[in-house]
Here is the input.
Amino acid sequence: MAKRVRVRDQDQFIVRLPDGMRTKIAEAAQSNDQSMNAEIVSRLEASFDPAAALSESEAVREVLGKYIQATEAQNDALRKAGVISEQLIEQFARAISKAASGDEGDLKGMVEREKTDPIWGRIVTVWSIVGGD
Here is the structure.
């Protein structure tokens, strides 16, 4: 069993803290359920452990990487939806133009396709997400 060292025999060091630091330490110590001294010692020990700092920065990098990938995937999907909606609008405009000339075949085909595969509702949803009118 390890021999207990009396508090009086441990090194002591007086530190001047900037305004507000004592309160921050007290709050951190309370949330970690330990004394202010234990909180300070724990944080000092962690600062001398390069592996802990490295693993923390790696974790941050990993989270940022996942966020960037998700954002890029979302941007790609929105770009594709924009291209698809532009193509559909062009097809719809051509079909209306043909229908005005008496050829209603394309317009009827689009209407029938919309009944089985309603794309316009999805386009409106995408545009509302990206702020389109």
Remarks:
- The first helix runs from residue 21 to 31.
- Helices lie at 21-31, 36-47, 50-100, 105-116, 119-130.
- The chain has a mean pLDDT of 79.
- The two ends are 74 Å apart (CA to CA).
